[in-house]
Amino acid sequence: MGRSPSVQRSPSTVTAPVVTVRVPAKVNVQLAVGPLRPDGFHDLANVFLAVGLYDEVTVTPADSLRLTVEGPGAEYVPLDASNLAARAAIALAERHGIAPDVHIHIAKDIPVAGGMAGGSADAAGALLACDTLWGTGSTREELLAICAELGSDVPFSLVGGAALGRGRGEILTPLEVGGTFHWVFALADGGLSTPAVYAECDRLRADTPVPEAAATPTLLEALRTGDPTALASALANDLQPAALSLRPSLAATLHSGTQAGALAALVSGSGPTCAFLAKDAESATSVADALTASGTCRAARVTSAPAPGATVL
Ligand code: C5P
Q1: pTM > 0.90: yes or no
Q2: 153 noted as active-site residue
């Protein structure tokens, strides 16, 4: 932290300082959802894995706070103060008694409202970019505290790699990952609202006792050893029945990927993006080709994990 902003120079002019931060998407290799808490959140055992799909957040000084977004789904991203990236800049500025006069530009590649923490990534990216631009020199702990105020998944977007999230997902313990995992993501048309998926999960479980959420030891061991077959058999998402209930067509997407040779398929977080774990890079490419040909998704993307957290470019 506390890095000075890079200054772009051309031969005849000196332009304004500009900072760009690259931030990864995530998939939850385990999302165990415990009982509903009095504050409306659920206690989780949330095993996050950062994957190599990225948004880029660029900040430059401006007369007032301004936000622009480009990329697939940009038209669905709010441009007012409800945007998490704008809220990140405001939160940091308030702590330091300065005005959040910055132009935040987000180049999106993470699916919007797709269950891959795209909005959280943009918040973590804007926070780190503004801290760098303004020279506010926050410690990691200070940045993580702001992240946790902004949203349950935002701290993980800052740190990347793999981590177990407890509480509502914001209390992180880093996890060791012993290899590269190859993933395919099937992108859907339109998004799903995270609160709506949690509410549907509560509705579906209304008549069953809900145990405390706990991480599965075999899953943590599969991450540690880098074994895709072992990880495939331990993948679990308690929000999947709710996402399927709200978007039944996802069942066909999941089926297409497993038919095409994926080791396992699951809904990513609250969906509607579907995630497929592949044996290796070659298998991931053929699963993606089959998903594209199946017509059960808008597009398929191949990538690998773990990916690093928010990084100043
Ligand atoms: O923390 P965040 O703003 O991302 O949460 C969005 C919504 O997701 C919450 O308002 C809540 O409905 C749901 N949620 C939850 N339990 C969590 C995390 C999120 O119920 N642990």
Answers
A1: yes
A2: yes
CA of 151 to the centre of ligand 1 (A): 8
In the chain the first and final C-alpha atoms are separated, in Å, by 13
Is residue 268 within 8 A of residue 274, CB to CB? The reply is yes
pLDDT tens for each residue of 120-171 = 999 999 999 999 999 999 999 999 999 999 999 999 999 999 999 999 999 9
> Among the options 55, 122, 153, 238, which is catalytic?
153
Region of residue 203 (phi > 0: left; psi between -120 and 50: alpha; otherwise: beta): alpha
Q: Which of 1-5, 21-25, 69-73, 258-262 has the lowest mean pLDDT?
A: 1-5
Other beta carbons within 10 Å of 194:
19
- Could you tell which of 33, 41, 157 is best to mutate to test the pocket of ligand 1, judged by most ligand atoms within 8 Å of the CB? 41
> How far away, in angstroms, is 194 Cα from ligand 1 center?
7
* CA 54 to ligand 1 center in whole angstroms: 22
CB of 151 closer than 6 angstroms to any ligand 1 atom: yes
Q: Is the pLDDT of residue 172 over 90?
A: yes
